[in-house]
Amino acid sequence: MSRLPDGWGDGTRSVRAGEAPPVPGTPLRPSPVFAAPFHLGDRPPRADGADAYARTEHPTSRAFETAVGELDGGRCLSFATGMAAITATVMALVSAGDRLVLPADGYYTTRLLARDELERLGIRVEYVPTTGIADAAARGDLDGARMVVLETPSNPQLDVCDVAAVARATRASGALLAVDNTTATPLGQRPLALGADLTVGADTKALTGHSDLLLGHVSTASDELYDRLKGWRDHTGATPGAFDAWLGHRSMSTLDLRLARQAETAAAVAEVLAAHPAVTGVRWPWRPEDPSYALATRQMLRPVGVVSAGLADEAAVSRFLAAARLWTAATSFGGVHSTVDRRAQWGGDAVPGGFLRFSCGIEDTADVVADLTAALDAV
Ligand SMILES: Cc1ncc(COP(=O)(O)O)c(C=O)c1O
């Protein structure tokens, strides 16, 4: 599916994914097109692939989708947000009465979607912890499910599960396998190559990485699944705006550079956290001591820039944040700023008040680590 040569590295792929062959006189990088309707001629709308109406076909979102699809190894459809992409993945392909298996410890709003919308519509939702899904699949416990959704590494605990092992089971039982690949990004993990049917991204996070837009996507190598998802998106109107799709495409060019700096900082941050007496429960899948280490380093292509850990309680978190200058309190992750998210602040996830998710930005590693050390010492 991808037109990118196999030998190109991630830096080249980030910049060149989705590029059309050069045409003299056309822009090096496509500019955003803001039209909602397009000129129609005498022929039926969309004849010969002509654009007709932006909700259903649009050159700017198509450029973003071509690029992301090439990185994912499939055909990509963009959505207004990550949740719109997850909603489409489930609702376009799962029906009332079907069994849907979701991670018990994945992104909280996916579970809210299930509890408040999917169950209401008669979808039978079951929750399995990320670390238990591969065993459940091997035991045959997932047999009969219409779809299994994985989120690996999971947000916020950073547990990892074996995509290829679950894919073997879902292929055998006839279930669809969808992977929320948000934390890893298409450069960090390729769920389609590991056997998944669908890979989903909240591109609001590291893929676009500047904390200034909402965007999501789904990629699949199946034309049938692609068509079903496109029908869902066109009918429900979950398409992204042209400016966001353009900004997302533009931001992707630096994905390799940003991930590299974030990972370098995350490695240093994980060590500082692990060595500090005020901190417990450090999780970063690339620490050899981490329970996910063996699987993460085998399955994934590069480390993530997110680390989780715990301070004693909420008061300790407040002291940490008051002392930090670079570690800014904000939700989301994967952006150019180093941020800290207090999950307990949001309710929902059963995490202790001192639990923190550190999202390493692209500031100088030494500055961010010095700021972390000073703020921890103030705790
Ligand atoms: C793993 C994961 N999936 C999906 C989402 C939803 O993305 P969005 O906020 O763009 O709807 C998030 C957002 O935090 C996430 O962390």
From TrEMBL:
Region (Disordered), start-end ranges: 1-30
GO BP: cysteine biosynthetic process via cystathionine; transsulfuration
Record InterPro entries: Cys/Met-Metab_PyrdxlP-dep_enz, PyrdxlP-dep_Trfase, PyrdxlP-dep_Trfase_major, PyrdxlP-dep_Trfase_small
Record's compositionally biased regions (Pro residues): 21-30
Gene Ontology cellular-component annotations: cytoplasm
Listed name of the protein: Cystathionine gamma-lyase
Domain of life per record: Bacteria
Entry-annotated residues carrying N6-(pyridoxal phosphate)lysine: K205
An example molecular function term from Gene Ontology annotations: pyridoxal phosphate binding
Annotated family: Belongs to the trans-sulfuration enzymes family.
Cofactor(s) listed in the protein's UniProt record: pyridoxal 5'-phosphate
Keyword terms: Lyase, Pyridoxal phosphate
